[in-house]
Amino acid sequence: MMPTFLTRPLLGAACVLALTACTQSQAPVSFIAAGNPDKLSDWHLMAVASGKLNLNKDVVPYDLNTPLFTDYAHKLRTVWMPKGQSAAYHADATFDFPVGTIISKTFYYPKGADGKTVLATYDSDGDRLDTSKVRLIETRLLVKRASGWIALPYVWNAEQTDAVLSRTGDQIPLEVIHQDKRSNKLTYVVPNVNQCASCHVADVKSRQFQPIGPKARHLNRNYTYDGVSTNQLDYLVRVGYLKGVPADGVPRNANWHDSTQSVDARARAYLDINCAHCHNDKGAANTTALHLQMGAPADLHLGLCKPPVAAGAGTGGRSHDITPGLPDDSIMLYRLNSAEPGVMMPELGRSSVHKEGVALIRAWIAAMKQGCDSKT
Predict the structure, then answer these.
(1) Which of 18, 220, 302, 306 has its CA 20 to 30 A from that of 345?
(2) What is the 3-state secondary structure (H, E, C) of 69-121?
(3) What's the pLDDT at 194?
(4) For the whole model, what pTM was predicted?
């Protein structure tokens, strides 16, 4: 589905005004060009008042068609740009954001009935979070300065009133209750700034640091802005945050959780967001020759009948990254289904196995024609 650009500018202006009506009491967003502020509140992107997390004026929330898995955490994503500045559209790559851009991602969980455990769900909580119902864990900022992007992780305090800079990361014990009533205890890991770079460096030769999510194929979907469901790219253009979006031909990834879409489209979207920032021809895992980005051909580079570049614990004794039709003989499924350091993939960003994601990849591989003389 392509963006449908609205032809009623007055309606668009009304939506923007309504979205920001409750933020007028906050000080303006601060783009801090140097240094590392100690508190998230120093940026004035958002504030907790009367138990609600409210976004500031011109801080625009968005979501992805298929999000990265992070131990079942929910994520509130936002973007803010200096007045009069816009990002430039690219069909396949991350948008070209201007200096001064601040991208935030707040990780949180719905609270369990006891107020101590947290819930693993896939329901959206929107962008006005109630701290009596959710537990805020961390907010990561990507800030575009004149020298390039920097990453700053902030960990929310126990009072849920502010978040404190934690450049060295953090570890937070959690008990997660799943929809089937099973529970598991895990250690949620807040990455340090070097670990952030290990995922966000898009090109290992240039060492170019880039956001991962803000690409056309991830953002081409609807979001409810103050009660009005609107295509996100349409909305970003309307508020002046994006330029150059074509009238048609905008790519769109599948929603991995939407069973009405094909297993192939959902699995490719899942691998694209969870794995392709490393597994591409320029990324940190380029020496593996395993290319998992959307659009990569479904051949040896996708892992079909591909031997691993190195043997060891990570293979689980299996011979191919993907053995078509035989998921249990495939290294990819073995590593996704592990939480053991040195075996599991992705290596960072999770302490638990994404059971539903593993089930999707299992179904995808099982649907392939058996035999290594076939492509799929």
Answers:
(1) 220
(2) CCCCCEEEEEEECCCCCCEECCCCCCCECCCCCEEEEEEEEEECCCCCCEECC
(3) 76
(4) 0.90
